[in-house]
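Ticket closed. Logging final result for CMS1 protein.
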Amino acid sequence: PTECFLSQPEEKQESAVKAKRRKKKKISDVLQKSAPKPGVPADLQNLLSQHFGGNRSVIEIEELKLSDSCFLPANDLTHSFSSYLKEICPKWAKLRRSHKEKKSVVMLVLCSSALRSLELIKSMTAFKGDCRVIKLFAKHIKIKEQMNMLEKGMFHIGVGTPGRVKALVEQDALCLNSTKYMILDWNWRDQKLRRMMDIPEV
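Final structure:
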């Protein structure tokens, strides 16, 4: 009887520890259960003002604001990636044919990871037609290789991560003057359930 009696509090302690462990996972559980919402221009505007608010003057922050005319309708989450691109860019074939500049792309797609970039490249086959896509991320591809490719070849769509795109722009390897569309992969979450905009480096 004493042995049974002694084992009871230990069981309670174990169950208490398990309960504590479960509580720690609640944030990700909430994120998992919360339904994704379509992005709106205000989301990006708020993010920019939060990021630059501390070290910019009021006038500089005003200059950072983009008018609503700069934004296309966001994916209302009923579209696949290809069908969304077809909706926002109905004259893609004409744009693709008229693009002749090297070191530039007509459409730039930004994602949070290399794997996600590859996923999006595969899913846009119905849209892209006879055009060249360049991978702009760091995984298995050196920056020098990408610089050479951009200098020698002509590409229509660039899909990559913000870090690598920024590095290429800073080194004048990627010119954004002829870029007509910039797509942000806003709602996709990684294994830690972070969106691209939740990653501090971004």
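The mean pLDDT is 85. No further action required.
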